[in-house]
Design a protein that fits this description.
The complex is a heterodimer of chains A (113) and B (115). Chain A has 113 residues and is an all-beta fold. Chain A has no helices and 12 strands. Classes of the chains: A mainly beta (113), B mainly beta (115).
């Protein structure tokens, strides 16, 4: 069965430091992968998506993610974190026949001044 | 281009009652998906509607039902509310029957509290 694992429940980084959020997926075919961000009390905003081609994808707000098939990973990165990046981040994989997304449990990012 | 909108933003109901949540899809999108997000969890897929028909369903009981209208807006209905139904309900719209390549765009959600 398809699944997504985000190993880190909570990460704290200093403002200006680099960030990497981990995501591992389980999917039989070529995965369609997504990263979403959710600010407190808000819906989900799409940061970036991977369908095929270049394994390094650029998204909004200076985020990027790298697809590594050999490691079944799709980690999210940002070179310099801003205080406004504090939020919860969700990795998702397209589930297939049902047309749904399968989400991880999320990683909460806190940013220290 | 208008984004996905949902109403109401918050709702309080008591156990056993029924609730209807509404969603307007993003302009040009013909597919609507509903998700339930419990506190501290990722969203869980409830069902998807494409051209007014249910196109896929997650592991939710039949008391969760929906509709999609000709303008592609949608409703989620939950009957016989239970305490565990307390959650953030998210609507997402996309283009196309299989929404994988068409990324899903989410509304702000409706927070439901069942007492």
């Amino acid at each position: 069965a398809q699944s997504v694992t985000q190993p880190d429940i909570h990460i704290t980084v200093s403002e200006g430091a680099s960030l990497e959020l981990r995501c591992n997926y389980s999917y039989g075919a070529t995965p369609y992968l997504f990263w979403y961000v959710q600010s407190p009390g808000q819906g989900l905003q799409l940061l970036l998506k991977y369908f095929s081609g270049d394994t390094l994808v650029q998204g909004i707000k200076g985020f990027e993610a790298e697809f590594k098939r050999s490691q079944s990973s799709f980690n999210l990165r940002k070179p310099s974190v801003h205080w406004s990046d504090a939020a919860e981040y969700f990795c998702a994989v397209y589930g297939g026949s049902q047309g749904n997304l399968i989400f991880g449990k999320g990683t909460k990012l806190s940013v220290k001044p | 281009e208008t984004g996905v909108t949902q109403s109401p933003t918050h709702l309080i109901k008591t156990r056993g009652q029924q609730v209807t949540l509404r969603c307007s899809s993003q302009s040009g999108h013909n597919t609507v998906s509903w998700y339930q997000q419990a506190l501290g969890q990722g969203p869980q897929f409830i069902f998807q509607y494409y051209r007014e028909e249910e196109n896929g369903r997650g592991n939710f009981p039949p008391r969760f039902s929906g509709l999609q209208f000709p303008n592609y807006s949608s409703e989620l209905n939950v009957n016989a509310l239970e305490l565990d139904d307390s959650a953030l309900y998210l609507c997402a719209s996309s283009l196309g029957q299989t929404s994988g390549r068409g990324a899903q765009y989410f509304g702000p959600g409706t927070r439901l509290l069942v007492l």
